[in-house]
Amino acid sequence: QKEVEQNSGPLSVPEGAIASLNCTYSDRGSQSFFWYRQYSGKSPELIMFIYSNGDKEDGRFTAQLNKASQYVSLLIRDSQPSDSATYLCALEGTYKYIFGTGTRLKVLA
Amino acid sequence: KAGVTQTPRYLIKTRGQQVTLSCSPISGHRSVSWYQQTPGQGLQFLFEYFSETQRNKGNFPGRFSGRQFSNSRSEMNVSTLELGDSALYLCASSWTSSGENEQFFGPGTRLTVL
Predict the structure, then answer these.
(1) Are A56 and A62 contacting, i.e. CB atoms less than 8 angstroms apart?
(2) Cα B100 to chain center, whole Å?
(3) In this structure, are residues A75 and A9 in contact, taking their beta carbons and an 8 Å threshold?
(4) Are strands B74-78 and B87-94 parallel, antiparallel or unpaired?
């Protein structure tokens, strides 16, 4: 089992809809979780981080963490074509960060 | 505050050669991590440095090595290049090496091995 798993997609949503991206992890001891956005040919850009169970909102983005079920998700409200990118989930291990392979999101105009 | 910088941005080498990549972290950040990104494998962790000490290493052969200087700048070296080493090499910095802190990426070095 991979340490961080994401559906590779593509996930296609119409403009204005809510995009829901999910990530599961295997290490129950993981404490810190991150969502990165990566446009084609660019480096990953940090969107949000979450440490506590529950929801954390930042503008159109909401991160959700459920440590008991070992999943973390990212909701993007009012999706825009500019949100089309690959979204990487990551967790912080011991002196390293572990990344999922990413979910490709396509927002259709 | 300036972001993470990496040089060079692009490199073309031939098999058997060696290459050195450089990374300057965000000012004040002491932790630098290196990743290899390929379309098939995603982001693979290479190693992490904190205060000039390698704290963790990923599953890469010994041809991949790195170091960190007292000013937190880091270099990564790949010797005896192979075709499979063609990838985007990303450096990321963070405040400390563990705990609740975010990691920020540089623009990457695109290495092509012919």
Answers:
(1) yes
(2) 21
(3) no
(4) unpaired
Residue of B nearest to A87 (CA): B42
Please report, for residues A3, A32, A49, A54, B58, the alpha-carbon distance to residue A91 in angstroms, rounded to integers and kept in the order given.
9, 6, 9, 16, 15
Chain B residues with CB under 8 Å of A99 CB are 35, 42-43, 45
Model confidence pLDDT, tens digit, residues B38-89: 987 889 999 999 999 999 999 999 999 999 999 999 999 999 999 999 999 9
E runs forming strands in chain B = 5-7, 10-13, 19-24, 31-38, 42-50, 53-57, 64-68, 74-78, 87-94, 104-105, 109-113
Task: Give the tens place of pLDDT for each residue, A27-59.
Answer: 888 888 999 999 998 999 999 999 999 999 999
Three-state secondary structure call for residue A83: helix
Partner B contacted by A96 (CB < 8 A) = yes
Q: Is B104 on the interface with A (CB under 8 A)?
A: yes
Determine contact: B39 vs chain A, CB below 8 A: no
Q: Nearest residue of A to residue B103 by CA position? A: A46
Q: Under an 8 A CB cutoff, do B100 and A94 touch?
A: no
